Amino acid sequence: MEAALYDPERGYYIRRVPTEDFYTAPELHPVFAAVLARQIARQLDSLKAAGVAGPYSVVELGSGSGILAREILKRLKEESPPWAQSIRYILVDRSRNALLDSIISLSASYERVMGCSRLEDVLPCSGVFFSNELLDAFPVHLLEKRDGGVYEVYVEESGRTLLSELSRGELKPFADAIGPRLEEGERHAVNLEALRWLRTVSEKLKEGTLVTIDYGKRFSGAPNPPRAFHRHSRDERLTEDKGLKDITASVDFDAMIHEGKQLGFQLESYGTLARFMLDGGIAEWFEQADKQGAIPSFKSRAKMKTLIHPEGMGEVFKVLIQRKKHLEPLP
């Protein structure tokens, strides 16, 4: 899965054309960035009120093309100018070309923009770390129940799959927990990489907030099969046509919350993207759209509805907000 998604020459995310197989929230409509910018400003205000020493950093994990960074900084400049001027905005993305393009573009308007190709290279800081549709793109370990036991699924170069013993001891608690709930032949994805990522974030975030926006749910032991998508359609052939399709698995937010507590993160909130957008003021944008011409208004409203509609992104995407250290819960 790592090779299929991230191979430097043939990996899916290296070759991907935006919106070809799926679209992300910031590609859909700028209101997503506007609401997220408000949340970031709110968290920074809380840090300042708690007396946490600055300067503060806003760290975007998996910054990609930079479209979200541009819109967030634009909104901060309009609604929270002091933060737009004082924060360090750090982009983290494994694509050096994307990082360079984003930094060059953003530096023309904002002085404190920098980038790292690895989270490990970010210096410890206080502020807000956030990701959007990052964790569901991490390579996963795939478990399958066969003859009453739980084994790991391996893929040969030819694409043929085979079952064998678990590759890592870390997988055993997951196999033991999910085994009784799996039917014969049923599969379950385990995202160990997401938990390692959370541990690294904990090392880098001294005080502040982690906002994780992704496709997933709180599984409570329910099976989590992986999926593949090609041209906006689900593709059941996970191991065929490597590099030409998006392979993903829903984020297990129960595991993220549990691991976070072990690392000193307090759960501030967990809910749907729809609730996050409504609480963040998306209604104001619908009012603005009504003032446009008929066709622009229709197009804008349709895109915004996708962000909050149960059959769009509104229910399947979740927003997890975790806070670190002594900060009191926000009102």
Show the helix and strand layout:
Elements (H helix, E strand, L loop, with lengths): L1 H5 L5 H4 L9 H4 L2 H19 L6 E6 L5 H13 L1 H6 L1 E5 L3 H12 L5 E4 L8 E8 L8 E6 L2 E7 L5 E4 L7 H7 L8 E4 L1 H13 E13 L9 E4 L2 E3 L10 E3 L2 E2 H10 L2 E8 H7 L2 H9 L3 H15 L8 E8 L7
Parallel strand pairs: 1-2, 1-4, 2-3, 4-9, 9-13
Antiparallel strand pairs: 5-6, 5-8, 6-7, 9-15, 10-11, 10-12, 14-15
Number of domains: 2
Order of helix and strand elements from N to C terminus:
HHHHEHHEHEEEEEHEHEEEEEHEHHHE
Low-confidence stretches: 17-21
Computed over alpha carbons, the radius of gyration is 20 Å
CATH class categorisation of the largest domain = Alpha Beta
- Main sheet, how many strands, which sense, barrel? 8 strands, mixed
**Count of helical stretches:** 13
Task: Write up what this structure looks like.
- By secondary structure, the protein is α/β, with parallel strands linked by helices.
- The chain folds into 2 domains: 2-138 and 191-324, Rossmann fold; 141-189, no CATH class.
- The protein is built from 13 helices and 15 strands.
- The strands form 3 sheets. Strands 1, 2, 3, 4, 9, 13, 14 and 15 form an 8-stranded mixed β-sheet that branches. A 4-stranded antiparallel β-sheet has the order 7-6-5-8.
- Strand 5 and strand 6 (149-155) form a beta hairpin.
- Helix 4 (31-49) crosses helix 5 (67-79) and helix 9 runs parallel beside helix 10 (253-262).
- It is globular, with a radius of gyration of 20 Å.
- It starts with a helix and ends in a 7-residue tail after the last strand.
